[in-house]
Specification:
Elements (H helix, E strand, L loop, with lengths): L3 E4 L5 E5 L1 H9 L8 E4 L6 E2 L4 H7 L22 H7 L9 H14 L1 H19 L4 H21 L16 H18 L1 H19 L4 H29 L2 H7 L4 H12 L3 H16 L3 H12 L5 H39 L10
Helix pairs in contact: 1-2, 3-11, 4-14, 5-6, 5-14, 6-7, 6-10, 6-14, 7-9, 7-10, 7-11, 8-9, 9-12, 10-11, 12-14, 13-14
Amino acid sequence: MSQYKLIGQDSKEYGPVTVEDVAQWIADGRANGETEVQPEGEEDWRPLREVPELEDLLSGKAPKLAAHAELPPTLDAQPTATEVLEELADRPHTFNVGECMSQGRKAYKANIGLFSLSTLSLMGLNMVAALVPLGGLLAGGPLFGSYNMIMVKRLRGEPARVGNLFDGFKKFMEMFIAYLVVMVATMLAMIPAFGVMGIGAFVMMMMADDGASQSQLITTGVITCGLSVLCILPCYLVWTMLSFALPLVLDKNLPGMEAVKTAWGITKHCKAKCFGLVVSIGIINILPYLPCAVGMGVLAVTDSMTIPALLVVGLGGILLGILVAIVVCVPVAFTTHAVAYEKLFGPRTTEATTE
């Protein structure tokens, strides 16, 4: 007999259950044609009214059920951070950064089409969300968590597609809470960098008023940028450590805050490794823009181009860098992060999928 999983009105997943159980839910008013259903053996969820073998239940053609029929059981109760940390207590809380980068590159090469298209779709969806007030904040958690899980699934050899970017919206509130906490913690870690950038901007304004040359202003700007990068590193470290919470919500069915606690509970034991991961991912993401930055710096210092010409060259270089980042650097960086996630939280036998 076929069985099904359902998403209840409480947004929890129930099942697997029989047709009779589904009919009982409908009779009790706990399910209708819009209830999300996943038939046994399928990966996609769809409205109950679109499942041929269940649509008759909506018209009352199903046989009458016994009054004592039980409701479907919960698939899995949401665990707590303590329970997950206990499960992971007997494994080493560490990973090798070089190994993560190597496996990440291999996984990217094996899934270049999926990863690149997912990255492009993610950026497009974020741009659309940004058009709505607070849209980026509301959609960020579900989108980034789902994007992470696409990489994680492929590392495990499981099927994944671009449409999985929307999986996080099935656990919207938990994903939003996790993302909000991670963002707040990250912003607090950025306060020193904001201070340095503010002071640098003020100094450059004073120098400009005093008639400083273009090369002097550029030198001051470069120094300010260098100091800002040093101050931003702790911010990226916090983000890298806590952002594991996003896939944890989907992967282990954790509530948002419990996912953040779990991420911190594990990564606090390997801060140095996480810092190495930050530096490695940072280098990967900076690479597309380095040729443009170096070229503009040389041209500016030698005063061989006017400011408008520099801006045109710079814009062209940035656009090219963005293209390379979308196709290569961003997916490689996130896949490297996903490999680290697997080392810390995934099955012990997980290896990167390279075929």
